[in-house]
Design goal:
Elements: H1 2-40, E1 45-52, E2 67-74, E3 80-87, E4 91-97, E5 101-105, E6 110-113, E7 123-128, E8 135-141, E9 147-152, E10 157-159, E11 162-167, E12 171-175, E13 179-183, E14 188-192, E15 200-206, E16 209-217, E17 220-225, E18 230-232, E19 239-242, E20 247-251, E21 267-270, E22 276-278, E23 289-295, E24 298-305, E25 312-317, E26 322-327, E27 332-335, E28 338-343, E29 346-350, E30 356-360, E31 365-370, E32 373-378, E33 381-386, E34 392-399, E35 404-406, E36 412-414, E37 419-432, E38 435-445, E39 450-456
Antiparallel strand pairs: 1-2, 3-4, 4-5, 5-6, 7-8, 8-9, 9-10, 11-12, 12-13, 13-14, 15-16, 16-17, 17-18, 19-20, 20-21, 21-22, 23-24, 24-25, 25-26, 27-28, 28-29, 29-30, 31-32, 32-33, 33-34, 35-37, 36-37, 37-38, 38-39
Amino acid sequence: MIRNKKIIISIIAILLIVLLGTSYFIVQMLENKNQDNKENNKLNYEIKLKLDEEGDEYNCSLPNSNCTIYKIKTETKDAKILSYTDYKNKYVFILYDDNGLKIYDAKKEETQELNLKNDYDGNYELFSNQDKDNIIGIIYRDSLSNIEKYYSLNTKKTINKKILSANLDYGFLYESNGLFAYNIYTDKEEKINLEPIYDEYKLSFDSDKLLGIYYSKNKESGYYNILTNKKMYENTYIEIEGINENYLRALKNNHLGECNGWSSYDYLLSAKEEKVIFSEKEKSNVCDNYFVKEQSGSTYLLKLKGFQAYPTIDIYTKDKKLIASNVDNYNLSYIAGNIYIINDNVLNEYDSSGNLIESNKDYNKLLGFLSNELVYLDNNKLYLKNIKTNNNIEFSKINWSSNYIYEGRFSYVDLKENKKCIAISFKEEIKENEKTYRGLESCYNTNTKTFTNKYIEYGFTNQIWD
């Protein structure tokens, strides 16, 4: 008996030795194979993408074009670019196929490999975060207007359910045994208590909060208020959009002929109850639009007058008391709940009840606002002034000329680049170094406290709001 046990133990020991030896041999083979694969996958090839300063590839084929060439090392000679996105040529991301999908970050010169194959017949579209400095997902489009599915880089999941409606400032609505709203920026979804039976859906949201959904089919339509879980304004309007928790805007008729191919919102409505606040009967122009500004507990009702790129504005209290009319957007600013309006070189401050708090006539020449700072001239010097702190910034590189016009519509604040930029157009073009300039952009860097001037040949394109 003892002898049999010794024999069994010996056999087991021999088997263990053989197994360990075999395992070691297999591991060595796999390591050698991986090493061979690495040798075979050397980046011996290259693909290129040319973009101009606006992120346009087509213009680079024109003569004398000023373009940046982005070069990507690849494993395969038949690698190809599928899509790209950019932010004024500061952040460029390129999606390409090279033994699978990969994303190239041109600023960091880094490649991210995705566990995805290039097996889609439609168009890929890279989707970036709100700061435009990182890619958070890939949109699969079977047409320019339709999204078929979405892949999240954060969750590593694909949503390929039936997508019914999308607004890429928020996300999309899809059907999967009911309706679900998906926020692209947070990768969160919520079940919607609305029937998936309609032909059209339109999402309304305020920042990351979903407010409601306009729905329609044939002659049936309405607005589903997600916050109250109620349908409102059924079969009354052909489109309704949520502004915030308290207000909606709507239209009854398409004014496409009168409004250059666009529709205007004829009605301002309450989101709390079925109540009309402003209607088209109170309008002076069929292309007016209504909006609402809420800030620091104050509410202002706005009528944007006439269809144009930059309409003038009538400003009301929430009780519909008129505060000011025909104000350019760059001549008003909302600060700490009050509203500041420039009129005939006078700076007027009102509270939300429409009361005049202060009227300041001491400025030499008021040009407008840049966000919440006043733009003005003093002895032909250009200044920015913080109304609350009275801190001034002198644009020392600008000697104001009678040939200059302040372009408040194209002046902007870029918080990401720490810049405050003033746009100036020229009444008469300036010729210098065999070039003709139509304007000037002067920027102040809030970090370095320095100024840069850039002459504009064709027109202003930047417009970034803080």
